[in-house]
Design goal:
The protein is α/β, with parallel strands linked by helices. It has 13 helices and five strands. The structure holds zinc ion.
């Protein structure tokens, strides 16, 4: 752990642009690892868990996506490195934040974003409501991140056993403002009604797919940025019993080509792995 924290993994942007990732190689040539191959903190381990410089993740949304996948793998394997959680990290973002991903997730207490993605202070810009139902304030928050903070990856993340989705399926008559949640999710609940498999799991997944589309179509900011390849918008579902985040393949296909500024050709390949 200490060795990893003290090591500086050098991933140059120029190397990214030249396609090092596409060739399955990370730009680790400047790392002098004294750690035994295959063990935690080794070059091989860092490569498998996609431990890349967070600035690279901020610059390139496909790298950001792989970084989240790698962080979740660390968490699932009980090998979380808990980066950027000390006083130095607090001070480093005191004047300016550059989160590399927006997470649009559920308020559920069992889905702590920084923990399950093994990230730290200043990494994730999080918009949370029950069932990750969105309204004007949510839209504005996401737009703020992409416009004012320069964040280029948006992940809509549902989760197993979501109470809000369950309410949309089983409890159409709910008190107070909870009806707002139910109304927003009930289409997904209806669409998934006759699908094979678990009713709630299917509705959770369908809800995420619809919310991803909702953001991709959201005028006037996100729709333009998404189509221009400046912002990547994908969906995921978190499994409570394994800790695993599944990025939904339907949302990783047929993506607009990355904008020139967000395009290390290699990172574009990342989604294939
Ligand atoms: Zn939930």
């Amino acid at each position: 752990m200490f060795l990893f924290r003290s090591a500086v993994l050098f991933v140059s942007l120029s190397a990214l642009a030249q396609g090092a990732f596409a060739q399955g190689r990370m730009a680790t040539t400047k790392v002098k690892s004294k750690v035994k191959a295959g063990t935690i903190d080794s070059v091989q381990w860092r490569r498998a868990h996609y431990i890349v410089n967070r600035d690279s993740a901020y610059a390139f949304p496909r790298v950001a996506l792989r970084k989240l996948m790698g962080g979740n793998r660390c968490f699932v394997e009980n090998k979380a490195i808990r980066p950027r959680q000390d006083r130095a990290a607090l001070l480093s973002v005191e004047k300016k934040q550059t989160p590399f991903a927006v997470i649009v997730g559920c308020s559920d207490s069992r889905v702590p974003n920084e923990i399950i993605f093994d990230q730290g202070v200043g990494d994730l810009f999080i918009v949370r409501t029950a069932g990750q139902v969105m309204a004007a304030a949510s839209y504005g928050s996401i737009e703020f991140a992409t416009v004012a903070l320069g964040t280029k990856l948006v992940v809509v993340m549902g989760h197993q056993s979501c109470g809000a989705v369950n309410a949309a399926i089983n409890r159409p008559d709910v008190p107070g403002h909870i009806v707002t949640l139910v109304n927003s999710i009930k289409h997904a609940a209806a669409v998934s009604k006759d699908q094979p498999g678990d009713r709630l799991d299917n509705a959770v997944r369908e809800n995420v797919l619809e919310q991803v589309q909702e953001l991709r179509d959201l005028d006037p900011v996100l729709s333009k940025k998404y189509q221009a390849g400046e912002v990547l918008i994908v969906g995921a579902v978190y499994q409570l019993h394994t800790g695993q985040v599944e990025f939904l393949p339907e949302t990783l296909k047929n993506l607009p080509a990355p904008a020139a500024a967000a395009k290390p050709s290699a990172a574009a390949e990342a989604l294939k792995h």
